[in-house]
């Protein structure tokens, strides 16, 4: 993977090497480093996802992430090198999971997409646009793997989240209902087409 930089307003991304690492420079608020998570990050990821789950509960009844968020799926995702953390100094302020298949939600698919899960930002950072800039880095990372689509799922009933992803360039593909072991819920599948050069939405 060749080094590259992307300037978006006051935000600049720099891919530093061939690993899943990057630096996000956010002007007066300092920089955020993005890297693959290790097992020592599990507690911080649990904290971020639990905070996000509590925030989600303010806008809908049921169907969101559990509170507290369990450690086991995070540990499994780290061992598969899917989880990442974004840090401001020594503090993890955001997390996400990026994988190259998702049979549970999307079924068998050709290797054309990256699959985004568990994107969450601490509430103290939410107003700084960290989530949107992470999506841009994830898009570039996915395109660098030779994949032309970035896909995700979210609860169909969470209109605020669906609108957030639509504003980030994703489109609705279809709704599905999943369960058990949990009670069945309707999920909205969404995808974003990536430009060959930059990972930007190809409109």
Structure overview:
The model is unreliable at 1-19 (pLDDT under 50). The protein has 203 residues and is of the alpha+beta class. It is globular. Strand 2 (11-15) and strand 3 (22-25) form a beta hairpin. The chain has a single domain, classed as Aminopeptidase, CATH 3.40.630. Strands 1-2-3-4-5-6-7-8-10-9 form a 10-stranded mixed sheet. The chain has helices spanning 42-56, 72-79, 103-106, 130-144, 159-167; strands at 5-8, 11-15, 22-25, 31-36, 83-88, 91-99, 113-121, 149-155, 171-178, 185-193.
Strand order of the largest sheet: 1-2-3-4-5-6-7-8-10-9
Helical percentage: 25-40%
What percent of residues are in strands?
25-35%
Return residue spans where pLDDT drops below 50 for at least 5 consecutive residues.
Answer: 1-19
What's the level 1 CATH class? Alpha Beta
Count every beta strand, where a strand is a DSSP E run of 2 or more residues.
10
Number of structural domains: 1
Provide the CATH topology.
Aminopeptidase
Order of helices and strands: EEEEHHEEHEHEHEE
- Oligomer, anyone? single chain
Largest sheet: 10 strands, mixed
From the alpha-carbon coordinates, what is the Rg to the nearest angstrom? 16 Å
Overall morphology? globular
What's the average pLDDT?
84
Query: What separation lies between the terminal Cα atoms?
Result: 25 Å
Helix/strand/pairing class, anyone?
alpha+beta
CATH homologous group name: Gcn5-related N-acetyltransferase (GNAT)
How many alpha or pi helices?
5
Query: What's the architecture in CATH terms?
Result: 3-Layer(aba) Sandwich
